[in-house]
Amino acid sequence: MIRRKKRMSLIVPTSSMGDIAFLLIIFFMLASTFMKSGNVQVENPTSDSIEAQESPMVEVIVDADGAIWMGGVVSSVAEVGMACRMQAEQLRESPVHLKVDRNLKRKDYMPVIEAISEAGVKMILTGDKEN
Question: Which residues of 119-128 are buried (b: 16+ CB within 10 A; e: fewer)?
Answer without folding.
Answer: bebebeebbe
